[in-house]
Design a protein that fits this description.
heterodimer; A: about 240 residues; mainly alpha; about 80% helix; B: about 280 residues; alpha/beta; Rossmann fold; six-stranded mixed β-sheet; 13 strands; about 30% strand; binds adenosine-5'-triphosphate; binds magnesium ion
Chain lengths: ~240, ~280
Amino acid sequence: MKPIVRSFGMFVRQIANDGMLWGVGLAPLLLGVMIRFGVPYVETVLSGYLPGNILVPYYQLFDLVLFLMTPYMFCFASAMVMLAERDENIAQYLAITPLGKKGYVFSRLYVPVLLSVPASIMVMLYFSLTVWPTRHLLEGAILMGLLSTVVALLVVSISRNRVEGVAVGKLSGLLILGLVVPYFIESGFQYLVCFMPSFWIARYFLDGNILFLLSALVTSLVWIALLFRKFSTKLF
Amino acid sequence: MIHVQDLQFSYTSHPFIADINFTVPAGEIFGFLGPSGAGKTTIQKILTGLLTGFKGNVEVGGIDLRKSNRDLYERIGVDFEFPSLYEKLTGKENLKFFASLYKHHVAIDPLLESVGLINDADKKVSAYSKGMKSRLDFIKALVHDPDILFLDEPTSGLDPSNARVMKNIILQLKANGKTILLTTHNMYDATELCDRVAFIVDGKLVALDTPHNLIISHGASTVRYSYISEGEEKTITTALDKTGTDALLLQLVKENRLSTIHSSEPTLNDIFSFLTGRELQ
Ligand SMILES: Nc1ncnc2c1ncn2[C@@H]1O[C@H](COP(=O)(O)OP(=O)(O)OP(=O)(O)O)[C@@H](O)[C@H]1O
Ligand SMILES: [Mg+2]
């Protein structure tokens, strides 16, 4: 337990010393303020010109993007720290200390994901546009956490350094597409993105069918299983 | 302390590390010598549990590497081929952090002192020279006073006086009963430090003995002498154990006509080339 606590302490210390990662940590709060106050304001302005509700049907979609933002940013920071530690051969070194490979992955990836669960729920409690029942908040936080884990594994597995990591991280923002698709494409074409866990998450919160929840879980876990080996050989 | 039996491993589908067998008793310095790419680092990574998926039996400190190696990591110290340090932290902060991962650790300042880094302890590692990083990396492997040390080319990149300091520390560690597995390209270091050396070539162990036995058993010492004859210098080489029957040499000695005479013992390097047909580097 002690090695994991120390190792997590070093993770926090690295984030605190890194300007970019400060920004990453603050991003969910900024987005929260924008969504909570900006979106309804735009809606009132627009409805002055156009008849009916313009943005209101998409309030849940804004909420989903906001919900994703916290674990996504936590995992992005986690991936950046892991890439830096890989470049300095530190990940490998930690693997031969009492921390071990498992302890390393636990302190760098799983702990941030676990912390993102309460953090993202807090963000939603303060900033969401629609009302979220407690059960949905819990389910959402877990699903978004798993989805973000996939992002962290992807970033570490396919980038050779931090610069590439930032690029891959931005590219993985396309995952948001999976959230958007069910709101705009009604036809069967929407299943083109069925490989994205985010697609099933949006479907689940749109109509509450438990099968979609399971699909979101399964697609995330399949991605994690597919990427984990590559991630691990890359790090150690 | 270290027991390796029928070890096999490869990064690819082609066979690479194969038929490696050796035992290192407690308190010994055991050397790996071999050309670049031979697999020395690879074998060390297997022995420290970094590379899994090998075949055969590997036991380090009585712990089977296939089973849990949690306890093992309290007891082994590793100095990688390349530094593994937080560049943005100071030397001391690095040591403190790594020491904090262990149940027990030794005082940091004497360690820094031992390799001449005490005055640079509060500098960021990014401002260290290559040799300073190597020295810091080396003492980082000692913070928890491990029984078994794996040192991958610890003296490479060091100037002679710092290399001397480090070699003395290694000998002191041995005197304190540590078991040390050392990789090197430098046959002088190997001859000086190691109780036994293993020659590794293309993933195979081609010879294993004490440096002394390897030298004695594989190469005859020679004597080279020169003299002046008809205004020209002539040089002759003869085996050390044939000097008594070398009539010319005996005559030259009697007549005080030798201009030079040298004996030369084969080095570990010569033995290595002789056994493997390859140069160490
Ligand atoms: N992670 C890896 N993946 C694939 N091949 C590797 C990997 N690491 C090393 N190799 C290959 O394995 C072989 C042995 O490498 P190794 O680092 O063990 O050699 P070495 O004896 O330590 O050499 P040196 O004296 O240069 O340090 C080399 O051909 C190398 O290219
Ligand atoms: Mg090597």
